[in-house]
Design a protein that fits this description.
Length: 299
Amino acid sequence: MKKHSDYSWIHHVGDISYADDASVKIEPSSGSGYDEVYDLFQDSLQDITSSTPYMVSPGNHDVTCRVTSDLGCPKQQRNFSAFRQRWRMPSIESGASTVEHHNVWYSYRVGNVHFVSIDTESDFPNAPTKPTTKIGGGAGGGFGDQLSWLKSDLQAANSDPTIDYIVAMGHRVFYSSSLTDWPLNAVKHVSSAFEPIFKDFNVDLYICGHKHFYERGSPAYNNKPVERGLVQIVNGAAGCNEGVQGEGKGKGHHLIVKGNYEDTGYGELEVREGEMVWRYVLSEGGGVDDEVVIKSKRS
């Protein structure tokens, strides 16, 4: 595995510490409190985060202190509070909010690439997390008009002649081989909210997680292969206390051109002269398990 100093920055697409799983006794740190587990996770990252930018997107395990609901969680551990207070993302700088530690959606630029981080948990129609949510992560949201901001941000990026690629990051998938998700129809609602916007503003690549495996899809739109469509990478196999997930036969199975359902690994994105290359690298041994050149929609 390469050293973190070999990378310009790191982006973690949700489920940052799995501290909410501590209450269900499925990890070595079970029995410790939510904040204690989060402390352990962040302490383990200090050598990296002290020298390399570490960007985060919210996932379903970042909503509240228990994976099942808000029950037993004090107010200061609900509604993405740990995610928002423990990190500092450029929401203000990218016009996503005027509130310090907004964090849940934002954008940034590195060289000739525009990156946008979305919140697939809240603040869009039929979002998994709403102020009225009782189970499956707790109540949350109310951080602003995410979709209006996203359209404005991507419109500006798409109109900028110095930007060659647009890459989006979020937690939940638009499609995958998985048969089920929670809440029911979450995949449909997430893709309905974001995929048309990505199409309208020529997003080249969507990197997500949530499913604990690796899958790369063919260029697609609305669950169908489309020439010059959006390429989706599901990289939820970095490793966690819940283990690696097996292949399913869900509605998106026909779009998968490469999958790994056994190994943990991480992604690399390299931008070189005239092209952007994605790689999936195995944690054990550092071998490249998948590699693809992403073509710009602006070329």
